[in-house]
């Protein structure tokens, strides 16, 4: 009897040791733990919309709670001051282009003829002044003419020669036309005026605020008549598509999932289950956020997941707590 009891005890011990050894080397897998359950929230995705330029708000086309689409006009600014600047810029372009055309075409033939006539008249005046100078010069020594008359004769000759030189230089300038440097400077003035007009046109375009994406108007921060600075928030828009869920997974379960894996998302008070797909797994660990309502993970390092969820009935709301189940999660192996 004692021998039989000993044999039973030995057999049980052998089985326990064998089980321990095989499990210790990972030869026996743990039982499938079933669907993996995670917790998180619907991502809050909001964008503050405003004008790039400042001014007085002319209109706001949407109310809070309105659904908007990409490209929809949301608000406008008063354009009167910018339109005045645009007209002024157009006038500056016209003046700069006229000046450039004048320099490139050179001086008119009539202007050159007038300068040539002035030069010819100055030459005649020089000839007359030289003749008087030569005629009176011998009379100075004997005292046949007064010193004042002689001084006046010399001054008249010098003045005539200076006026002739000036007339000749003016004629040469008209014949030569504008310098290349002047033409280049005039062309630069035209470019500057065009650039200023383009900038004004961009400002005019930016007096209209369009939605860049589909979404819901969450807040009207300002109202028509308000004067706002560039970049001031006019509307806050919630982006609902695609709907994203942020969830967290502990390191022991990290090997059970991979991007592209199908998930099921549910919320309290709603019997419906929403389909989703794991789109992103963070490569860096972080401490569990306070929003994760599970004591097992609160003090652990976890990895953030981004899950893309279909929301056909628009029942999911941003910031809403959700439960994520991954039915196809792989079972973990014993270590």
UniProtKB/TrEMBL annotation:
Question: Is Coiled coil given among the entry's keywords?
Answer: yes
* Subcellular compartments: Cell envelope
Name all YbhG-like alpha-helical hairpin domain ranges: 77-203
From which residue to which does any coiled coil extend? 79-132
User: What is the protein name for this chain?
Assistant: HlyD family efflux transporter periplasmic adaptor subunit
An example Gene Ontology CC term for this record: cell envelope
Q: Give the source species.
A: Qipengyuania algicida
**Keyword Iron-sulfur listed:** no
Show the taxonomic lineage: Bacteria, Pseudomonadati, Pseudomonadota, Alphaproteobacteria, Sphingomonadales
Keyword tags: Coiled coil
Which InterPro entries does the record associate with it? HH_YbhG-like, UPF0194_transport
Q: Which PANTHER family match?
A: EFFLUX SYSTEM COMPONENT YKNX-RELATED, UPF0194 MEMBRANE PROTEIN YBHG
């Amino acid at each position: 009897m004692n021998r039989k009891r000993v044999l039973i005890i030995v057999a049980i011990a052998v089985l326990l040791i064998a089980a321990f050894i095989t499990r210790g080397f990972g030869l026996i897998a743990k039982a499938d733990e079933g669907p993996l359950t995670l917790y998180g929230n619907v991502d809050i995705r909001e964008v503050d919309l405003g004008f790039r330029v400042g001014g007085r708000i002319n209109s706001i086309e949407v109310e809070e709670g309105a659904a908007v689409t990409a490209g929809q006009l949301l608000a406008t600014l008063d354009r009167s001051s910018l339109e005045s600047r645009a007209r002024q810029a157009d006038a500056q372009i016209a003046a700069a282009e006229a000046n450039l055309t004048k320099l490139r075409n050179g001086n008119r033939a009539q202007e050159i003829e007038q300068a040539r006539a002035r030069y010819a008249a100055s030459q005649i005046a020089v000839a007359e002044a030289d003749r008087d100078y030569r005629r009176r010069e011998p009379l100075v020594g004997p005292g046949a003419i007064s010193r004042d008359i002689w001084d006046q004769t010399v001054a008249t000759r010098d003045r005539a020669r200076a006026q002739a030189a000036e007339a000749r230089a003016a004629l040469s300038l008209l014949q030569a036309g504008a310098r290349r440097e002047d033409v280049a400077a005039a062309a630069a003035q035209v470019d500057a005026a065009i650039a200023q007009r383009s900038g004004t046109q961009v400002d005019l375009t930016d007096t209209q605020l369009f939605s860049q994406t589909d979404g819901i108007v969450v807040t009207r921060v300002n109202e028509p008549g308000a004067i706002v600075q560039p970049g001031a928030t006019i509307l806050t828009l919630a982006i609902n598509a695609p709907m994203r869920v942020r969830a967290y997974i502990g390191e022991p379960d990290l090997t059970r999932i991979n991007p592209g894996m199908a998930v099921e998302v549910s919320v309290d008070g709603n019997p419906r289950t929403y389909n989703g797909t794991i789109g992103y797994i963070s490569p860096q660990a972080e401490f569990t956020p306070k929003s994760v309502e599970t004591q097992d993970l609160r003090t652990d390092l976890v990895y953030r997941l981004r899950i893309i969820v279909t929301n056909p009935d628009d029942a999911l709301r941003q910031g809403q707590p959700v439960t994520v189940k991954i039915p196809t999660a792989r079972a973990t192996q014993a270590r």
